[in-house]
Amino acid sequence: MNEKLVQAFNAQINAELYSEYLYLAMKAVFEEQHLTGFANWFNVQVQEEHAHALGLYDYVHERGGKVTLDAIAKPEFKEGSIVEIFEQVLKHEELVTSKINALADEADNAKDRAAVSFLDWYVKEQVEEEASVRQIISNLKLIGDDKKALLMLDRELATRTFVQPVIG
What we know:
Layout: H1 3-32, H2 36-62, H3 82-109, H4 113-143, H5 147-157
């Protein structure tokens, strides 16, 4: 991989680790409210983001590049209603999608077919990530102030489990 592409991969590793850190901070909000299903949903997100970062990390090494880890910024989000938090999650996932697309563009510009092929998994994963969050937002808006329905959704989210992705 050329040096510019290696740098772009390193920036994306940092972005994925930031996402992990952000979702860990959001998980804490739901644990404090004893909404263990929502906390579980974020816990799975934490694990997924970590796996995404490691997938990129391993790929850089596999291609002979040098991984350079930068500081991870303090997670920034505004505590609010559950819907508001998930709307922030959606905005964040849309930002990650734009970063993945920019990385894929950089791989295209470098005419690095292996990197383009590898990143295709991440492009598809972002479609799933955004769709998942949009579904939760829709459900939360339908629920409104119905506490029983909220607890039902919390129980549903408690069943989510982490499945180690096969990246690339």
